[in-house]
Amino acid sequence: YKEDLLSIILFGSVARGKWNNESDIDLFIIFTNKSSLRTTINNRLTKIISGYERKSKLRNSKGDRLFSTIQDISLVLKDLHTFRTIFYDIAMDGIILFDRNQTGFQFLKKIKKRIEEKGLRRIFIKENDYYWERKVKFGEIIEL
Length: 144
Hints:
Oligomer: single chain
Structural class: alpha+beta
Radius of gyration: 17 Å
Largest sheet: 4 strands, mixed
CATH architecture: 2-Layer Sandwich
Number of domains: 1
Distance between the termini: 35 Å
Helix content: 25-40%
Shape: flat
Number of strands: 6
CATH class: Alpha Beta
């Protein structure tokens, strides 16, 4: 199935270097458009993740387990054309772990351009709490 895997991108608090005991590992995974294989690959990934979660030995100084869960968002190429607001977070935090044909790189570049064009800013309230801000001109119709 490796030829159907296009990109793996780490994002979220771990990618920002701001994780804590309650953090999970967030992965964004892009597959080719063969959606039937996506189910098979996701089932395999679920087994790998659950094995990791059971065996995780990463602990902090208090003995608490770090990164007890892995959250993944898996999409096929054609799904990238349907915008999701989570794409902003992936673009801002994303660290490419695997990238075939620069699929992930081009995706991040496109979303970062959209952030710039829309004048969006991410405002942090606390270390891992934030919101997105966009200055809107009076009468302007906005589309996120």
